[in-house]
Design goal:
Elements: E1 7-10, H1 16-29, E2 32-36, E3 50-54, H2 63-82, E4 89-93, H3 100-110, E5 114-117, H4 124-128, H5 137-152, E6 155-158, H6 161-167, E7 176-178, H7 197-201, E8 208-215, H8 223-229, E9 238-245
Parallel strand pairs: 1-2, 1-4, 2-3, 4-5, 5-6, 6-7, 8-9
Helix pairs in contact: 2-3, 3-5
Length: 250
């Protein structure tokens, strides 16, 4: 294995889209490392020089397990990154949301460049969900950390314009870039419900389907979905489909 990666992807929970990006980078740019706690279920080896390393997995069943596994991943990711040879560029996906600390330390110690992909804006979600008051020491210190680590990154990638506006409170506006999530359009394509095996198998062909796909964590506001469900009953022709998991009890 080449000990000098061109790119180093870090992320505890990554999607198939990130795997596809890592594949393309390995094919176009050279040796690429991906350090993740996600079982990506590879059916065939990468065609480029892509090396995937196992890491502590993410457990979102409770708030405590999320925090515990976040810390375990960061504790594993930092020494893993430091052992890389050369001067790789780091791409950090913000699960854990404190992962930017690895890029910051690698930049200060080794002079490496890093990019942070922000998927959830912390500590904002903790104060909005009233997990902490805004003047609590934890969100105040977290906000200060964001300002330091984000301002040293080459770029901060967000999913949309609203999230970008949120992130700009922590760093220069021109450092924030919007790149929406993407899919493999060869595999995922629009089709008529009558031709969709999933819709047919679950009786969703004739009804309007309202779908939520994502986490059910304490920091995720699902009240709008639940309120909407209360306005419809059996026979109204509307079905709600929730896909995901987490520790949310309501």
């Amino acid at each position: 294995m080449n000990d000098s990666p061109k790119l180093l992807f870090l992320g505890q929970a990554v999607s198939q889209e990130v795997l596809a990006l890592a594949r393309r980078c390995s094919e176009s740019l050279g040796t690429t490392w991906l350090h993740t706690g996600t079982d990506l279920g590879l059916e065939e080896p990468p065609s480029g020089p892509l090396y995937i390393f196992d890491a502590p997995a993410y457990d979102n069943s409770t708030t405590a397990s999320r925090a515990r596994t976040w810390l375990k991943y960061v504790a594993a990711a930092l020494p893993f990154a430091m052992k890389a040879g050369g001067k790789p560029t780091l791409l950090l996906s913000s699960n854990p949301p404190i992962l930017a600390v690895v890029g910051y330390l690698c930049q200060r110690i080794k002079g490496w460049r890093y990019v942070v992909r922000v998927l959830d804006v912390f500590p904002d979600v903790t104060t909005q969900r009233e997990m902490f008051p805004a003047n609590h020491p934890i969100p105040r210190l977290w906000s200060r950390f964001n300002r330091i680590s984000y301002s040293r990154a080459d770029a901060i990638i967000t999913l949309g314009d609203v999230m970008a506006d949120r992130v700009r409170q922590y760093t220069d506006s021109d450092r924030v870039v919007v790149i929406p999530d993407w899919v493999d359009t060869e595999t995922i394509r629009p089709m008529d419900k009558a031709d969709n095996w999933f819709a047919k198998e679950h009786g969703l062909v004739d009804d309007l389907t309202v779908m939520y796909s994502g986490n059910y964590g304490d920091s995720h506001d699902l009240s709008g979905v639940f309120d909407a469900m209360g306005h419809f009953g059996e026979g109204d022709g509307v079905r709600f489909l929730l896909i995901g998991g987490g520790g949310r009890g309501d």
